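ARCHIVE CARD
SHELF: 3
SLOT: left
DATA:
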Amino acid sequence: MSDRGKFVYDGMKLPFTLIVICFAAWGIAANMTDPLVKVFSKIFSMSTLQASFVQFAYYGAYFCLALPAAFINRRYSYKTGVLVGLGCAIAGAFLFYPAAQSMTFGFFLLALFTLAGGLSILETSANPFVIAMGPEYNATRRLNFAQAFNPVGTNIGVFLSAALILPRLNPATPEERAAMDPEALRAVQSAELQAVMTPYVGFACVLLLIWVAIYMTKMPTEREAAADGPRELHFGASVRRLMKRRRYVFGVIAQFFNVAAQTCVWTFTIQYVIEAIGGTEAEAGRYLQISLLIFLVSRFVMVWLMGYIRPSVLLCIMALMGAVLCLFAVANPNMSGVWAVVLVSATLSLMFPTIYGVALEGLGEDTKFGAAGLVMAILGGALMPLVHGAIMDARGAAVSYIVPALCFLVVMSYGLFDLIAKRRHPRVAAPAE
């Protein structure tokens, strides 16, 4: 039977639904983590740069675990990779309990690294799995659809932070904390860290239910095997082939700067709002929640637009708009600048899955290792927030938004590159969906 017009293959509807739930799950984790930079800087009286090691640990784990995930996927299957990733993430989320008891920043970083390492394996497996679940010609649109449920998770993550963590921070200033006697300070920190721990342990229980559901669901692998060829590992040969594909290599670079921009914008929204218009962390957190709601709606809008407009054209337009909004926020640290930062989320909505889908086009048996490279590019979310945080400490929150503005320009150049490449080497038109 022809696959013409299909969105997913026969027998893949239930597996597709379960994997889409995973997209929402790692969105919860990522956006519960974003406010922790501000939270830990307050609890432990650290600079923004020091607290930014939260993102270094989180996204650094993505870099370290993506390649092992590719070996798992290549040797076994995407389903195995998804289960291994979920298992590691469950362990990392449960580690928040002993971390809260130890009351040490380093233990929390270990828990975050373990959690994110599992999510790295999960994401390295789930993204190409979605691509393999249906015809290649609509793979980018299908991945955008699956990724559209990621902001459902991001909104839940921000809500959990806003409801369970930020309101329970003690209002004492760094100076007032420094003046407290050690026992009083420890009691304040203990209550705050218990608030941090609670949503992560609850998240671990949810992930455990997802793990059981996926384990018990039969997931056809015939299409996966046919697309990827034999399961022998030829890592060196795959890397050499990938390095010769300019669209893929540039896609990894673009993904690095896309994730960097996204992480910087969301991590430091609270600081920007407080500096621009004042208020508490909980009040500023509402603007982050609004930005994630905009991200959610925009993701579905972009999936619809891709039925009429080339993904690379949309990528160029949105990246340019993101750069303009960030520069506006730099020049206008007031209420209008706050709304500019909030609206950046609309431009971010299509970037990750679009870069991912475009970069993996036509990779065939190299898709699994190619997917690992694109997830390793999430390292941008580990490194660039350190730069952003250092500039914020030195020059203020407004000026620091020059960092994501420059990142957006790199992403825009990738969209232009793909458009030019496809104009020079047009492919056979895809069948109508």
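SLOT: right
DATA:
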Amino acid sequence: MATKRSVGTLKEADLKGKSVFVRVDLNVPLDDNSNITDDTRIRAAIPTIKYLMENGSRVVLCSHLGRPKGVTPKFSLKPLVPRLSELLGVEVVMANDSIDEEVQKLVAGLPEGGVLLLENVRFYKEEEKNDPEFAKKLAALADVYVNDAFGTAHRAHASTEGVAKYLKPSVAGFLMQKELDYLVGAVANPKKPFAAIVGGSKVSTKIGVIESLLSTVDILLLGGGMIFTFYKAQGHSVGSSLVEEDKLDLAKSLMEKAKAKGVSLLLPTDVVIADKFAPDANSKIVAATAIPDGWMGLDIGPDSIKTFSEALDTTKTIIWNGPMGVFEFDKFAAGTEAVAKQLAELSGKGVTTIIGGGDSVAAVEKVGLADKMSHISTGGGASLELLEGKPLPGVLALDDA
């Protein structure tokens, strides 16, 4: 992916009095009373919006929330207005729609530095179909396009890809820029030694990432439920642990590939097993090759934590995607928490630590170490696809630097 032009290259002369269509990712969790339970994504969008405001733009914000089928009041963006206004220090105006004349009037009525939030763009099925006519209607609201929604960059939707065809310049926002710098930078040109920690419950969802990383990493550490497919592929008994029977050959071939490429692939040597999948299960620590029948592995054990930690101590760049165990249950969170603590410590010593989206982000936040990492990716699916080396439509659509 060629480097993309950033919003930072646009100056007051390019922005003053112009209306700027900004695709942001304000897809935040709401409780049953429509209160925001986690405003991380809203806060992440602020630097780009403020930059545009300070340079005299009329800012038109576009986002989705959830997966509505048509107009669905519980997926309205209205509950976001108070928090957004508070963070930006201006009264954000809310539109009842995302296209058409009324919205155009609201845009025209914005002062320089004013902000308008469009209603959920996914209320129109044309958004996800990337319908050109719909994209034209969105583009008609503005002069400039900024995409700061990395979390949806892997989707070719009207607001993430379609509008870029009708608005010039089309540039990356600061958040998008940071994601690309870290994720593309790490994969394409990491400071070595480079380690990847890949966890999560299934090999099948991480095949692409593992295969792609095998060509760049020096060390690959595997954890989470997926390890049992690797153990079984080596002929070990895994009790009632999670196994993807149809992926045994694949696990074997990944181990062979790692060997051929000289990648040090580390599987846990010991695991914490449980007699049932529950927070209060009986648990014990056993060698990874000796899981008794009727027991299931739910976390990596203390020896593995030590081995992983020694391996990570030698590195300069680390990408982490996927937990080491069932960290939602405190009893089986030790492995994941240990990795989070170590990465935070290594960050402090100048190692580049990248948390590649998904559950790892939740794990790092649970331990309260999010601000210690070099970079925390805001995109689950988008980070995965980028780490797999797939092109992201929302990024390709932007102007090259």
